[in-house]
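In the previous chapter we treated chains in isolation. Here, by contrast, the input contains two separate entities that must be folded as one system, with a combined length of 678 residues.
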Amino acid sequence: MEFDRRQVATLVLGSAASVSLVSAASAQGDPLPSWNDGAAKEAIVKFVHATTDAASPQFVPVAERVATFDQDGTLWVEHPIYTQLVYCFDRVPALVKAHPELAKAEPFRTVLTGDREAIAKLGLEPLLKVVAATLTGIDVDTFRDEVASWIKDARDPRWKRPYTELVYQPQIELLKYLRGFGYRTYIVTGGGQDFVRVYAEETYGIPPEQVVGSAGAVSYQYGAKGPVLIKEPKLLLNDDNAGKPEGIHLMIGRKPYFAIGNSTGDRQMLEYAKAGTGARLAMLVLHDDGAREYAYGPAQGLPDTKVGTFTQELYDEATKDGWIVVSMKNDWKRVFAFD
Amino acid sequence: MEFDRRQVATLVLGSAASVSLVSAASAQGDPLPSWNDGAAKEAIVKFVHATTDAASPQFVPVAERVATFDQDGTLWVEHPIYTQLVYCFDRVPALVKAHPELAKAEPFRTVLTGDREAIAKLGLEPLLKVVAATLTGIDVDTFRDEVASWIKDARDPRWKRPYTELVYQPQIELLKYLRGFGYRTYIVTGGGQDFVRVYAEETYGIPPEQVVGSAGAVSYQYGAKGPVLIKEPKLLLNDDNAGKPEGIHLMIGRKPYFAIGNSTGDRQMLEYAKAGTGARLAMLVLHDDGAREYAYGPAQGLPDTKVGTFTQELYDEATKDGWIVVSMKNDWKRVFAFD
C-alpha cells in the first residue's frame, strides 16, 4: 500500500489539516499534469475538495473515502483484445503439453495454429473453454508465479512493450491524487481477480485486497507440501455489469464516492456510486483517440469494435445524470508515460 | 479504520523505527494488561517482535501484515447460541406480520411460541429456513438499519447487557496491540458478513472491508428511490472450515501471519496461516472457564455442547503443530471489560 506524505499528514493531523494541504499541493505544482485544463479535470479537483475539505458541507470521513476504477480500457489498453485473453492463448501450448489429448480437440487445435483470423472466429463458448482450461486446475501460488513470469516477458504487438507499460499516465496521476487525499483506490474489473492482483501493486499502487474482480471458487486441499488452494472451474462472482456493485458490496461493503469506467459493463457501478448521498463523481473514458491509442464506441459515431463497448445509450445516460465523459483526445495531454 | 500514533509512526518512519518503538511501548507499560504472564502472552509478544523488528530475520513488510480473528467464541460470547441466531428468532414476529401466511407454517409457528425447548428441538433444516427467511429478501441498507437497531436494544439473558459488551477484553487489547505494529486485523467468521459489518467498527475497530464472513448473493435492482442491492437466498461463501482460507483468498489475497480461532471451524484457517514461510502464529481459545464465561470442548474433558465445538483431535493437532492453546481460565486476567 502506498502512503505518500500528504496522506500520512491527513491521518496524523486529521481532517482539519486538509485545507492547508490543498494549498500546499497547489503550491507544489499541478498534481494532474497529464490532464488538460477543462471540465473533466475541473470536476475531479472540485470533487476532491468538496469531500476532503473539513469546512465543506459535503466532507467525507477518511474511513469512507472509497474510489473504484475499472481496469480494461480505463487504466490500461484493452484493444485489440483483453490482455488476460492473450495470456490464456499463450498458455495453451503448455496446457497441451501437460494434456496431450487436447492437441486435436477444439478449440485448442485452432488456438495452437496461431491463425489469428480463425481464432477470432471461434465465438464465445469455445473461448470460455480456453479461459476455463488455462485459468483453473492449478493452485493459486503456482498461478501467481506463472502470471508474474508472463507479464514480465510478454509484449504488446503494436508498441512492443510490456502490457504493464500500456497504462494511462493521466489515470496513474489520478490514482495518486485521490490517495493523496485519503481515498482508498480499488480496481473493480470484469477481469480475473487473481490475474490482476499479480501486477496491480507494482503497476497501480493497488494492493491485492483492493482488487475486486471476477472470481472463481478455490478449494482448500492438502498437497504434498501442505495446504493449497486449487482454482476451480466455478464462477463465484462475474464482476461485470450488475456484478460490479454486487462485488463492491461483497468485497468492500461501502458505496464508492468516486467511480470511473469506460464501457457498458461499468454502467451499474457508476449508477450505484451516484446513488449515494453527498458529492459523488462518476466518470467514463471515451476512446476517441485513434492516433495515440484506439478509437471505438459506438457512441458519438465511433467504430463499434465489440471490445469495451460504449453505446450511445450509455453516453446519453451519462449526459442526463451528470456523469463526466473524459475524451482521451481532448482531456489527456499524454496517454502513456513513454509518450 | 483506527490509526494509533505508533502505527502512523511506523508508516511515516518506516520499519527501521520499530525497534525503538518496541522499547517505547514497553516503557509505556503493558499493552496486554488483561493477559496473565505465561506461554500465550509470551508467544504473542515474541511473534510481534519477530515480524516487525527491522533487525529480525523474520521481518514482514507492513503491507503483508495480516491477522485474522474468528468472531463467535473468539472475540465475543457464542453460548448458549450464536448471537446472529438470536437476531433471526427475534425477527420472526416482524416477518410473520409482513407475511401472515407464515404464522401457521413450521418452523415459524414453533418459533413464535417462544418455547425454548421446542425451538431447540427443531433441528438444522428448519433452523436454516428461519435464517434464510430473516436474512434475505431485503435491501442491504434496510438490513443494516434493522441490525443496528436490534444490536443496540437486545440484551443477553445472563449478563443483561448488550451483546456488543460481551466481547473479550484480552482480545480487544490483542487487536489494538497488533494494529499498533502495523497489522491489519480482519474478522473471518462463519457468521454473516453483512451482519457483523454493522457493529464491527465500533465494537472491534474493524472496518467493513476487513470483515470476511459467510456471504449471500445480492442482486442489483432498480427500486423506487434508485438502485438497491437485494439480499438473495443464495449462499456465495460458507465462511467456515475450508471456507475460511477460501474466503481469505477471495477477500484479502494474502496468507495471514497471525490467526486465532476457538473451534473446529477454524482448523483450516490456522493450518493455512501456519503453512506460510517465516514466523506465523496460530492460536485457539479454549473455553475452560465456566465461572466467568462458559466451559465447553469436548477437548480436555470439557462438556460437549455442540456450539463452538473444540474436539480433542483439534487439541492434539494444535499441540503437534505448535499452535498455542489459550486457556480462558489461566491466560486471561479478566474476560470482559465490565469484570
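Confidence is low (pLDDT under 50) at residues 1-25 of chain B. Chain B touches chain A through 39 residues (CB under 8 Å). Compare these points with the single-chain example from earlier in the chapter.
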